[in-house]
Design goal:
homotetramer; about 190 residues; mainly alpha
Chain lengths: ~190, ~190, ~190, ~190
C-alpha cells in the first residue's frame, strides 16, 4: 500500500533531519577543553534529538502495528493520515526551539510549543486509528475485536499524558521536561505481552 | 513499479524539507514575551508550510489515484513524470520566498513566484495524466472510461485556479493568498462520492 | 530487491536536496524591483538545479532500465553500486560550487569540479552495467543479447562526452557549460525506438 | 517487511545528508588559485564524507545480509533496530565535528567523538544480530547454522576495532584516523567467499 511507503518515508526523513538542528560549535583555535565545554553545553540539543527520535520511532512502530489490522483505505483516511504526517514533519522545528532556549529565560515557551506539538500529534495518531477502527470501517474483517479494542485503549493514553506535560510547561519547564523524558523511557521499556 | 516508489520518495522529501525553511529565532536572553512575539511574527512561514504541505500531500494522493489506472510506462512518460517531480522538488524555494517577504514591500514578488510555480506544477500533473490516458495509451484496458474522463475533468480545474491566484498576485498579494488558501481548504473538504 | 529501493532513496534524496542550495535572498525592505533583480542574479543556481536534477533523473531512469536485465547481485556488485551512489550523493556540492562562482573570476574552477564529478559518475554508472553484463555475470539468462549490447554501447557515450566538458572547462567555462547544457537537452529529447 | 524499508530510508537519508556538511567556500572575487586553495583546505570534510559514507553503506549491505536470515520480528527487536538507526542518524554530527577540527588544536576531541560514535554503532549492529540469532529467536528455521555463526564471528570484529581507534584518539588524532581509514579500506576489499 503506497500509504504505508509514503508514511515510512516522511517519518524516516523527519527523524533523520533532526540531526541537522545540532550544529557543530565553531570557535577559532579552541583548545580541547574549550571544545569539550562547548559540546557539553549542547546537551539540550542531544536530549531533544533523543526524545523526538524515540517518540517518532515508537510512533512509526505503532503505525506498523495498526496497519496490520487495516485492510482498506479511502480519501478521508488518506487526509487524516496526511494530517498526522504534517504534525510529524513539523516536529524538528519545536525540537530545535525547545533545545535552543532550555536554560534561558524563555525556556517555558520552548516547552509549551514542544509538548503542545506532541499533544496534537498524539491526537492525530488516535484519529487515524479511531477513523479506521470505528465500526470496523477499514479493518480486515478477520481482525480480532479484543486486540482492536486493546490497541484503542493503549493509544488513548497518549493525548492526556502529553497534555499533562503541556499544562506543566506553563508552571515549570523542568517538570514538563521530566514528564516528556518519563514518557520516552516508558515507550522503550518492554513489558510482558508486547 | 519503481516509478511510484521514486515519486513517493521525492514527494515525501520535498514535503518534509519544507520545515527546514522555518528557522528558530535567535535572540540573546529573550524574555518569554519577546520569544512569543518572534514566534508570532513567523506566521507567514507556518502558513507557507501548511499550504505547500497540504497541496503536495493531496497531489501525492491524486498521484496514487491515477496510478491505479496506469498499467504500463514508457520513456516519454518517465520524463513527463520527472518534470512533475522537478516542479515538486522546487517548491520549498518559492514557499520560503513567499513567506520571507509577506508583509514586506516586495510581497507581490513572492506571491507571483509562489502561485506561478503552482500553475506550472498543476500543468505538469495534468500532462502526466493526459499523456497516460489519451487514447488509453498507458491505461489498464479494464479501466472504466467514465471514471477516467471524470478524473480528467476534475484535474483540469487546477491550472486555471492557480492561474487566477497568479494573475491576482500582480494586483494584490492578499487577494492571491486568499485564493491559494481557499484552494487548499477545498482540497481537504471531503465530498460525497470521493 | 533492497538494492533498488536503497538506490531509489539515495537518488531521490540527492535530487531533492539540490533545492537547499538555492537560498532566498535577504535584503532589508527590498522594493519589488530590487527583489526581482536579486532573483534574476540567482540564474546560475536555477541552471545548476536544472542540469543536475535532469541528469540524475535520467540516470535514475537508466538505472531502472539496466535493473530490468539484472537478476542477481553479489557483494562486489553492491560495492560498485555504492560507489555510484557516493558520486550521486556528492553532486549537490559541485552543483552549488559551479553556481556560486559562475560569472566570477574563479568560474573555471567550478566548471572543472562540476564536469569532473560527472565524468566520474558516468564512469561509475558504466562500471555497474559492465560488471553485471560482462559474460552475463548477473543478468537474467533470458536477457536479449542484442538489447544488452545496445545498452552497453549507448551508455559508453557518457564518459567521453563529460570528459569533453571537463577538458573544455580548463580553457573556457562558457564552452564547458554549453556542452553540459547540450547533453542535458539530448537526454530529454525522445527519439524513435526508445 | 516495513522494518527493512524504514531502515533503508533512514540509512539512505543519513548517508545523503552528509554532503550538507561540506559547504562551498565563499570568498569575494576569489582568483582561481585562491579558490583551489580553499577547496584543498576542505580535505578533512571530503575524508569524513568518504569514511562515513562507506562505513554506513557497508553497514547497509550487512543489514541486508542479516535480514536474509531473519524471518520474524517483535517489539523488542524493533526497538533494538531503532537504536541502531538512532546511531546512524546521529553520524552526520560527529563527522562534521571531526572534519571541522582536524588540523586544529582540538582535533583529538573530534576524533574521540567520531570513533566513539562508531564504537556504539558497531555495538548496536551486533545487538540487532545477536538478539535475532540467539537461540534462533527470529531466524528462518531453514537458516544454515554454519552461515549464522560465521556471520556472528565476522561482525564481532567491529566493536573492538573501533574501540582501538577510540583509545588511540586520546593519544594521537593521526593514529586514530589511520585506523579508521584502514577499517574503511578493509570493508571495500573483496575477498574470496564473499
Amino acid at each position: 500500500m503506497r500509504l504505508e511507503t509514503f508514511s515510512d518515508a516522511v517519518i524516516a526523513i523527519a527523524i533523520t533531519l533532526l540531526i541537522l538542528e545540532i550544529r557543530v560549535p565553531h570557535i577559532e583555535d579552541a583548545s580541547p577543553v574549550e571544545l569539550w565545554e562547548e559540546l557539553r553545553a549542547l546537551w539540550p540539543n542531544y536530549l531533544g534529538f533523543l526524545i523526538s527520535f524515540i517518540t517518532l520511532g515508537v510512533m512509526w512502530a505503532n503505525h506498523c502495528v495498526i496497519f496490520r489490522y487495516i485492510a482498506r483505505t479511502n480519501h478521508v483516511f488518506t487526509l487524516i493520515n496526511l494530517f498526522l504526517l504534517l504534525c510529524i514533519a513539523f516536529i524538528p522545528f519545536p525540537t530545535a526551539l525547545m533545545a535552543d532556549y532550555l536554560g534561558h529565560p524563555a525556556q517555558e515557551v520552548g516547552l509549551i510549543v514542544y509538548s503542545g506539538t506532541f499533544v496534537i500529534t498524539a491526537v492525530a495518531f488516535n484519529l487515524v486509528w479511531i477513523y479506521a477502527s470505528n465500526g470496523n470501517r477499514l479493518l480486515d474483517p478477520a481482525a480480532d475485536p479484543k486486540a482492536v479494542s486493546s490497541i484503542s485503549r493503549r493509544y488513548l493514553i497518549g493525548p492526556p499524558a502529553y497534555l499533562l506535560a503541556f499544562i506543566l510547561a506553563f508552571f515549570s519547564a523542568t517538570a514538563s521536561l521530566v514528564v516528556l523524558i518519563a514518557l520516552t523511557i516508558a515507550y522503550v521499556i518492554p513489558y510482558p505481552g508486547r
